[in-house]
Amino acid sequence: MKLTDNVLRSFRVAKVFRENTDKINCFDFSSNGETIISSSDDDSLVLYDCQEGKPKRTLYSKKYGVDLIRYTHAANTVVYSSNKIDDTIRYLSLHDNKYIRYFPGHNKRVTSLSMSPVDDTFISGSLDKTIRLWDLRSPNCQVLMHLQGKPVCSFDPEGLIFAAGINSEMVKLYDLRSFDKGPFATFKLQYDRTCEWTGLKFSNDGKLILLSTNGGALRILDAFKGAVLHSFGGYNNSKGVTLEASFTPDSQFVMIGSEDGKIHVWNAESGMKVALLDGKHTGPITCLQFNPKFMTFASACSNMAFWLPTIDE
Questions:
Q1: pLDDT at residue 62 tops 80
Q2: CATH architecture of 5-309
Q3: How far is it, in rounded angstroms, from Cα 223 to Cα 244?
Q4: Which has the closest alpha carbon to 216: 238, 247, 199, 189?
Q5: Are strands 121-126 and 98-103 parallel, antiparallel or unpaired?
Q6: DSSP code, position 234
Q7: Where does each WD repeat begin and end (predicted)?
Q8: How far apart are CA 133 and CA 261, in angstroms?
Q9: Domain assignments of the chain as residue spans, ordered by start
Q10: Any idea what the Cα angle at residue 131 is, between residues 122 and 24, rounded to 5°?
């Protein structure tokens, strides 16, 4: 089944889970699309089975809290950042709920966490104005970059380069094999005083970069030339909430939630809005991602919703 405008418009909430007592900060699908793990301000990590559509187990990080969370390449391990005590990143085995390793270094909140799609490296960006490159096998930071402002960062889908959005006004691209030489491309964007960049993602085909903000607009850039291809607005975000925006896996569409519980979808190429979906969320939709392998997506406020299409094309 192929994603089209009509299929997207037909998506409806299939299941709602009320496992959390506070807002969901982040979630991540496993690369095979079979599970999703969420982190919440109630200090819990909830693991869901996407195929059976039910929660499998709940783990707690009472001492450190849990903010950003990402699966590693081993099916039952995650890295996550904390929102209590310190800003150390933790590597957790879900299988036996034991820490495998700690990654200390950041001294302010971690705002970006991205796992390499090809190996055991990951990058983190923080309000301490640094980006750190790590290897899961070592507690020591492999590369430390001091920046002129707050960063958002991500690997490209091939794991050859990473992009850093700095100070909400420029995007720098680094080659992983020679980042000591500095960025090989820098794209300067018009600075928008009304909002800050809160996320950066590549499309799966590597051609586009999506910049999300804590305001009422997101932008798509040409990943090679840096030109702004589209600016999307018209969704509610008056309180400066960090709303996650995502590409669909085929790189054709961009979606974002809003503070009024609705999901807006645009065609990434034409820039046309194709769908407005009502998730009936009780709060702002802070998390939104499409399943990498199956025709379903998830959205979250303090509840988690799984969506399915209601037509077959």
A1: no
A2: 7 Propeller (2.130)
A3: 19
A4: 238
A5: unpaired
A6: -
A7: 17-58, 103-144, 235-276
A8: 35
A9: 5-309
A10: 65
Residue located via tokens 């499998």? 56
Secondary structure (DSSP) of 51-73: TTTEEEEEEE-TTT----EEE-S
Listed in sequence order, the DSSP H helices in the chain are: 5-9
Buried b (16+ CB within 10 A) or exposed e, 120-141: ebbbbbbebbbbbbbbbeeeeb
Cα–Cα distance for residue pair 285/246, rounded to 1 Å: 12
User: Distance between CA atoms of 61 and 25, rounded to whole angstroms?
Assistant: 13
Measure CA 165 to chain center: 14
Contacts of 108 (CB under 8 A, 6+ apart): 87, 126, 127, 128
Q: CA–CA distance from 146 to each of 126, 149, 174, 291 (Å)?
A: 10, 9, 14, 34
DSSP label at residue 7: H
Contact by Cβ (8 Å): 59, 94: yes
Residue from 311, 299, 301 nearest 264 by CA: 299
d(CA 219, CA 203): 13
Reported pTM: 0.94
Residue 313: per-residue pLDDT:
65
Mean pLDDT, residues 15-39: 92
